């Protein structure tokens, strides 16, 4: 069974999420503040975290940063904050998805399925290794190694990288990337690509300001060059 950690201090929201998730055979843990969320995540090892940003003891971004110090578990932010900079801040901190309240339960469930699916081993057992100048991408093991050390990627960063390296040397359009990584509802969210490509460059490029491997084709898409 998929275990979900709900982090929210609104009792009505928590109850609605609990009822809907348990009705669909999810196991649910609940935390009303950031400190409890971090403790439960370590103790219960959930498969996905649903996180509100407005918590009583700390900002949700701090929770994301705390989780990202030791785990790549998918984090879906559920927040009433609609400003683009706040979305970008949460994604930049390591969140995998961002849903603005109010939202439809069917949409949330779909996004949970997508987030969990990204962390599952690929069927068929890929055995290909992509070698670039300075780093390697092991598609079978879902690992990236740079200069002799493993590089930690979030599930979304990995999925984006995987799409690009499987199309090495080929321009991958913005719409295609958004649909493959985030789903059809995100076809216009080009700021997601900007944020996540910047993160991949910081982690893998020798000079992120002058990328050699992750090339932007302005207004069209992105290309990976080994």
Automatic annotation (TrEMBL):
Which PANTHER family would you find in this protein's record?
KDP OPERON TRANSCRIPTIONAL REGULATORY PROTEIN KDPE (PTHR48111:SF50), REGULATOR OF RPOS (PTHR48111)
Record feature DNA-binding region, as residue ranges:
127-226
Task: Tell me the domain of life.
Answer: Bacteria
- CDD domains, from UniProt? REC_OmpR_KdpE-like (cd17620), trans_reg_C (cd00383)
Q: Which organism is it from?
A: Kitasatospora acidiphila
Record keywords: Phosphoprotein included? Answer: yes
- Protein name according to UniProt: Transcriptional regulatory protein KdpE
Q: Which residues carry this modification: 4-aspartylphosphate?
A: 52
């Amino acid at each position: 069974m998929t275990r979900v950690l709900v982090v929210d201090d609104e009792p009505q929201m928590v109850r609605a999420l609990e009822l809907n998730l348990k009705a669909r055979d999810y196991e649910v843990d609940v935390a009303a503040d950031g400190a409890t969320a971090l403790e439960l995540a370590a103790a219960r090892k959930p498969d996905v975290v649903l996180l509100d940003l407005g918590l009583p003891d700390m900002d949700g971004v701090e929770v994301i940063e705390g989780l990202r110090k030791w785990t790549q578990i998918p984090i879906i932010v559920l927040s009433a904050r609609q400003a683009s900079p706040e979305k970008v801040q949460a994604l930049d901190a390591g969140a995998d998805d961002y849903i603005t309240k109010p939202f439809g339960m069917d949409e949330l469930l779909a996004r949970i399925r997508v987030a969990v699916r990204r962390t599952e081993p690929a069927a068929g057992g890929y055995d290909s290794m992509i070698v670039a100048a300075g780093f390697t991408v092991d598609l079978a093991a879902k690992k990236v190694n740079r200069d002799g050390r493993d590089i930690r990627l979030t599930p979304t960063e990995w999925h984006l990288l995987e799409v690009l390296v499987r199309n090495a040397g080929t321009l991958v359009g913005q719409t295609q990337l958004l649909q493959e990584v985030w789903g059809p509802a995100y076809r216009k969210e080009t700021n997601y690509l900007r944020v996540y490509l910047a993160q991949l460059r910081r982690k893998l490029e020798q000079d992120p300001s002058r990328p050699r491997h992750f090339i932007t084709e302005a207004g069209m898409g992105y290309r990976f060059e080994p």
